[in-house]
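Propose amino acids for all 143 sites.
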């Protein structure tokens, strides 16, 4: 009986552990919307109280939050960060020169919805100057 209790406890404690991050397109909550040779578009829907698995972003990216809620971020191997609000309709542009791994925890009051654009190839040269105000850019995109 003691052995069975010990096995159950150790299984419960290790259930939340993850040995290594997985690529973002393999993270179960990130659903593939579109993929071609240049871009991969993912949609994340994260209910209140839930977390993604640790996952790795390896490409320049742009994302846009589509809901008002509060999140924490946790880099792989580090402590969970402080809660912060999402910014719907404000694009976040990141240049990824080195892959980064993290997970997201929805600690807010609404489901977190985000569209994530992963740019698989950088263009050979920058495009023409923008005629509209620039919200952000990286070597792969101007918004």
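Proposal:
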């Amino acid at each position: 009986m003691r052995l069975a209790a010990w096995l159950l406890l150790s299984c419960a404690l290790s259930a939340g552990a993850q040995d290594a991050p997985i690529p973002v397109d393999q993270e179960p909550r990130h659903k593939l919307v579109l993929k071609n040779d240049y871009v991969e578009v993912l949609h994340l829907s994260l209910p209140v109280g839930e977390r993604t698995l640790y996952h790795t972003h390896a490409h320049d990216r742009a994302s846009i939050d589509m809901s008002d809620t509060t999140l924490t971020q946790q880099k792989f191997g580090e402590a969970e960060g402080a809660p912060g609000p999402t910014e719907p309709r404000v694009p976040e542009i990141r240049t990824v020169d080195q892959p980064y791994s993290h997970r997201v925890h929805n600690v807010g009051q609404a489901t977190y919805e985000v569209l994530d654009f992963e740019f698989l190839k950088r263009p050979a040269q920058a495009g023409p100057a923008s005629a509209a105000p620039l919200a952000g850019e990286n070597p792969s995109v101007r918004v």
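The chain has one domain: 18-122. The two ends are 61 Å apart (CA to CA).
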